[in-house]
Amino acid sequence: MKNYNVKQLFSQYKMLALGIAVAVIWAFFYTKTEGGFVSPRNLSNLLRQMSVTGILACGMVLVIIAGEIDLSVGSLLGLLGGVAAVLDVGQHLPLALNLALVLACGLLVGLFNGYLTAYRGIPSFIVGLGGMLTYRGVLLGVTGGITVAPVSNGLVQLGQAYLPASAGVLLGWALFALAAVLAWRRRAGRALHGLAQAPLWRDAASVLLTGVLLLAFIRTLNGYEGIPLPVLLLLALLGGFTYMTTQTVFGRRIYAVGSNMEATRLSGIDVRAVKLWIFGIMGLMCALAGLINTGRLAAGSPSAGTFSELDAIAACFIGGTSMRGGAGTVYGALIGALVMASLDNGMSMLDVDTYWQMIVKGSILTIAVWVDVSTRTARR
């Protein structure tokens, strides 16, 4: 009975548990690196490193919630990043046109994957596995197996630019005001419909905690160069995807498809169209991540994106997305991406052997899935 209650507690406060896990990881590396891990410069690098996995996780969480999987995202990231480098270095295309073409290619490839899965009945695992091999082969052909460099300064800025300190402070105030407005609207909405309210002090404390975290976030990053542009993009995606999954019909349909696809189909929802567009969004996220990665490296590499699909999937599972579909959040997946990036960064600072890094990350993924299975059992 005691074990059952512990599982229920973890199920209800999963995000709190993830926050504690991040705090423990950071505290461990803080002591082992004598404070170097939490220096403004390293945290800036960590968040920029996390942004690529986070962008992929934004799309992957939708795919998994819908009950599917996509193993091709790492290879597609590398391919689209390589295409951007080739168009930039070889064809000297204007940046805006280059970005538009790469994003369009990502959307089309994603829709093609979705078409094969939703309309042709090919399991998404097989479509993703075939894409993993195919896109990696195309990448090697496009780049000739060599690094394409140097890319133009405009493309480099996508992965390496920073928001000025003053603009970062204004952004922090704007986000704090937004959090306060959303909390007030939530209370007003519940009052309008006669629903039970949480104590006022709890909402006030939540808004205050948000402000404290924003202050620490802005001050830390302004202590180095400012907020990295990829992190700004990730914050924008977090807001956009969270709104889509919680406030739109399409978002609710994604959860419905993953929870019970047959019942959703019988209710009149076009399940195949939902899955088609989920994969299209995933392809678009691969294009964004590929562009950011190419800008961060200032080159198109034939090995770019290797194992990125595993990091994205692991981030989703660690963040509470159920492997059975029908449950998960975008912000949870991003916290999972932060866990993965923190482990990578910290173990690299400590010069941990590569094989140990792989063992640790693989073990954490296994534990995350075990926790999902256990908490599902507890809820029954």
Automatic annotation (TrEMBL):
Pfam families, alphabetically? BPD_transp_2
Keyword Iron-sulfur included in the entry's annotation: no
Q: Which keywords accompany this UniProt record?
A: Cell inner membrane, Cell membrane, Membrane, Sugar transport, Transmembrane, Transmembrane helix, Transport
UniProt subcellular location: Cell membrane
Q: Where do the coiled-coil regions begin and end?
A: none
The terms describing its cellular component in GO are: plasma membrane
Question: Does Cytoplasm count among this protein's keywords?
Answer: no
Which CDD domains does this chain map to? TM_PBP1_transp_AraH_like
Q: How does it sit in the membrane?
A: Multi-pass membrane protein
| Transmembrane portions of the chain | 12-30, 50-69, 76-93, 99-118, 125-149, 161-184, 204-221, 227-245, 274-292, 355-373
- One example GO MF annotation: transmembrane transporter activity
The function of this protein is: Part of the binding-protein-dependent transport system for D-xylose. Probably responsible for the translocation of the substrate across the membrane.
Q: What is this protein called?
A: Xylose transport system permease protein XylH
Q: Which organism is it from?
A: Rugamonas brunnea
